[in-house]
Amino acid sequence: MTFVVEKPAQIPIFIVAWLLIVKESWSFAPIGRTGGSLLMGVVTVIADTLGPEEAFEAIEYETLALLWGMMVLVEYLKDDALFDMFVNKFFIENKKLTPTRLLWLLSMSCGIMSALFTNDTMCIALTKTICYICTQRGYHPGPQMVAIAMSANIGSAATLIGNPQNAIIAALSSVQFAVFLAYSAAAMMVCMVINTFALSLWFRKDLQENTAFAAAAKEKMAESGMYGATAGSGSDDQESAPLMGGPTTDSEETEIDTEGNKICCFGPFQRSTNQKLFRYCLLASIAATLACFLADLPIGWTAAAGGVGAMLLDAVFNHRVPDRIFARVNWELLVFFSGLFITIEGLQHTMIPGQLLDYVDEVMRVDSIAGVCAFTAIITVGCNIFNNVPLVLLVGLAMSYDETDGVEIPFMESIGDADLAWILLAWVSTVAGNLTLMGSVANLIVAEEGKHYFEMSFGYYSKFGFPVTCVTLYVGVAIICGLWTITH
Predict the structure, then answer these.
(1) What's the pLDDT tens digit per position in 373-415?
(2) Which three-class secondary structure string do you get for 49-71?
(3) In principle, which of 21, 103, 171, 331 could form an S-S bond with 62, CB 3.0–4.6 Å?
(4) Which residues cross the membrane (predicted)?
(5) Is residue 27 part of a domain?
(6) Residue 417 contacts by C-beta under 8 Å, 6 or more apart in sequence?
(7) DSSP 186-245
(8) Residue 347 maps to a domain
(9) Pick from 92, 172, 175: nearest CA to 137
(10) Could you give the CA distance from residue 174 to residue 413 in angstroms, rounded to a whole number?
(11) pTM of this prediction exceeds 0.90
């Protein structure tokens, strides 16, 4: 087979884009990942690899709609203090938590919530609070930080809305949400248990009360101005106030605003009544969104409908405009993906990805044990070289040449059952991020959010993460393939 390269100008464009993505910013040109992705997307059009219309068509708008809708719903949950209530009840106010019990409760809850509300969100929501609890109670936060990062990644692999690469797969593939969930959730639950059990063994020395470490951490917190860590603050036996939202005051509970607290033409009501009704309706809206996912309605626009529905509920019950929610939505992520879609589509026009994958398509077939093992190994290595999101786009958009019929077909359809291949791609590309500290954005978020409590080094994480992830990767793949064989 002759190797043909078209649009060669796109090759250096992709290399520069990759360099800008793998590092947050370069000192000589700190444009950042988002700016770099957008820049290379524009250069792709300027270099005439894609025309303006082709560039707009390359953007997967359903993926952007899915990400935007889920971000809005999560921000409303945080805004209404529902995350705060969960953390307060199960972690801050729970006096029966030993370090090991905390590890198990944290791992399972973080994994399940990551499947519903994305892994990065849960890492941001939990890390500082859990580290604070550990410091106040004399526990080492290191094992808990590793648990948050790894559980968030494993848990997010269970659904098509758990992380950005799964959202891309939702848009590119024809896999139904319920089918994906049925196979991936089983693998997720088993691997969560394996991962947490391994954590409890590996870090057993750190999973003990360590008042000396806690005292040093409190001092460090005080120096960096962290909450609840000021000098001379209360007794060591008494925990400071919860880090997240607190209860409303009596005046807030009883205040009646004859204009601001009406619901349509009814009222006025106490502010607490409006807030309570909004909370119930918000939860109902989220449940309805998830039900629509299971009913196989268009996943992106269903998520977007859930987001705008939450805005409407907030306006009706609380008379608030959504400006504060818009301000907290990660617009940079949406811009980053838009530029990346264009750049990757430009690379596909060089014909290089499809031709390279043609060399390994027989090796990576998902209808044999050897092929599945090779598929897992190749995708894992690729994710740790290119990052999981670009790799999923490269593989998902690649076209393979069928020599029998003399036509091009999607690569994912050339290696066996396409639905199984997509489910395996989602699992491997997500869990592979647990190999090293640098393997996923979720890991880096945990390290950054918890650095004032404990500096989770590359070695501290990776000595555990690498061997255990090799196990959970293949155990999960075996479960998915085993269930697929039984049901087909």
Answers:
(1) 999 999 999 888 877 888 898 899 888 876 666 678 889 998 9
(2) CCCHHHHHHHCCHHHHHHHHHHH
(3) 171
(4) 180-203, 277-295, 329-349, 369-399, 420-446, 466-486
(5) no
(6) 366, 367, 484, 488
(7) HHHHHHHHHHHHHHHHHTTTTSSB-HHHHHHHHHHHHHTT-TT--TT-S-TTS----SS-
(8) yes
(9) 92
(10) 11
(11) no
